[in-house]
What does this fold into?
Amino acid sequence: MADRTMTTRRQGLLLILSSPSGAGKTTLSRRLLEFNRDLLVSVSMTTRPRRPSEISGRDYQFVTEELFQKHLAENQFLEHATVHGNCYGTPREPVLAAIDRGVDMLFDIDWQGADQLREAMPNEVVSIFILPPSLDELARRLRSRAQDSEAVIQARLAAARSEIAHWHKYDFVLVNQDIEVCLAQIQSILVAERLRRNRQIGLGDRVAELLER
Ligand code: 5GP
It folds into this structure.
């Protein structure tokens, strides 16, 4: 007979990954999504130019400053921030729909966005901060991906320090020394968070039913 405890309906959670750029967050997100077919990624809107490796609609919705401001004025973002001089925002509608359907969502957003999401949805948010093993290693990783100019890399290293300063607001802080270990740690957090009592809908009735038999 099927284990009915496993079929309890659940409220969707919002899993935030933040880190300085180069700490491996993009790779971690991609791997997590491959492994968890039931996890949806929130595709942000940005005014940043598209990088050659990126696909519009998959990595971001790349828009003009004008269109971004229009969405902002219409209150279509759940959170938004300016990062490295570009505007980024999380479209509100897909997130609310996912939570309603009990689907979990993954967010690759900075500390400003994490602050706003935590404030808007304190019960749904689970936040993880990914640290690089060292700033030297971060610099090496930024250079090896060869996507940005040296000036941009220097700016990102300076920005890394201020991003890291917000580590203490996150539920979990991991060091990405080894991507496989880090991935397993995030996966463990996801599994545990999904099992939290307050996310399981109708659990009281289920337990009452169990006690009556
Ligand atoms: P990149 O331009 O390298 O893809 O991202 C730069 C930074 O912006 C990263 O730290 C990323 O997490 C953050 N970011 C991406 N999308 C959003 C968003 O919708 N909101 C916020 N607040 N930050 C974002």
Observations:
- The chain is about 40% helix and 20% strand.
- Residues 10-212 form a domain with the Rossmann fold fold (CATH 3.40.50.300).
- The first strand starts at residue 14 and ends at 18.
- The helical segments are 25-35, 65-73, 92-100, 111-120, 135-144, 150-164, 179-194, 203-212.
